[in-house]
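Async update (no meeting this week)

Hi team, since we skipped the sync, here's where things stand on the single-chain job. The sequence we agreed to prioritize is pasted below, unchanged from the tracker. I ran it this morning and attached the output directly underneath so nobody has to dig for it. Comments welcome in thread, and please keep replies under the output.
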Amino acid sequence: MFLVTGATGNVGAEPVRGPDAPVPDGARPVLGGLDDPGTLAGARDAGVRHVVLVSGGSAALADMSDPISRSLTLSERAVRDSGMAWTLLRPRAFMSNAPRWAPRLRAGDTVRVPFPDAPAACVDPRDVAAVAARSLVGRDPRGRVHELTGPHPRDQLAVLAEMLGRDLRCVGLTDGQARAEMERTLPAEYVDAIVRPDVQEVTGRPPRTFRQWAPAHAGAFR
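Output:
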């Protein structure tokens, strides 16, 4: 038996349903939270042996003054201290965040982005789900922290422009302004698009590219 928290979200929906599969027979919703020691103790007492937590890169900062870093750090600590085997997944920026540009694209052909000429090693939520599934049912060792990224992509806006058949342009902050803003809250992996090998090491295949992700989500940009 497997429990998937956040089963209606971008990552959680993938191991439950996959892109086309129906909801499995016998699946039912329950309430709980992996940052709640009571929930974790209940899971352990019920026979759960292994927890895979989708966290984030900000957990590495352990910055208790930042609400995002604090939440992720405390969740990771709770899982590590639960008495169950654990695997931590720290995905970087998600490809599924790209629809944030949709309102501007509906209004015109220009969007404002930080680092308009820099690549970002965004990861497809399906790859995060694939690593989670392999960690649960495969031979991936317990007690590991996986830093999940996609490959170095082509510019995402260029991919969208080609897919939509539009002449899209981006304008943004200077590199210095954008870096100063991002470095206040984000770890270096976000700022410098450091590519990690974990997706391929766990799944046995390269991470999906933005070009592979975009066609299934084209409707969000039209």
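Quick observations from my side:
The chain has a mean pLDDT of 79.
Residues 79 and 86 are 7 Å apart (CA to CA).
Reply here if anything looks off.
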